Amino acid sequence: xxxxxxxxxIAECVNHVSGWxxxxxxxxxxxxxxxxWWTSTCTLSQLPSHPLSVARANVYxxxxxxxxxxxxxxxxxxxxxxxxxxxxxxxxxxxLCHLRRYVTFVCW
Length: 108
Fold this sequence. Notes:
Low-confidence stretches: none
Number of helices: 2
Order of helices and strands: HEEEEH
Number of domains: 2
Distance between the termini: 72 Å
């Protein structure tokens, strides 16, 4: 089965990275590790449905990841990032609107 072999290959790769990190006095936080699949050769039925076991922790498959504040979709699009940014901006504008009545207008 492709998904079992693929899962074990990915888990082995991440475990090698974890070993390299520990040999260089770094630590992989397996609780914050996420796996996102994007490939043109695998269909949805071939993707594993169970979490991967990495460094004695379960790593779950996600469709959106955040890296340095940027949200990346599984199709490498920016729809989630744009949607979240617009939502945050709208929230900030609503807060400013509530504060407007407490600020006096000064003409420079």
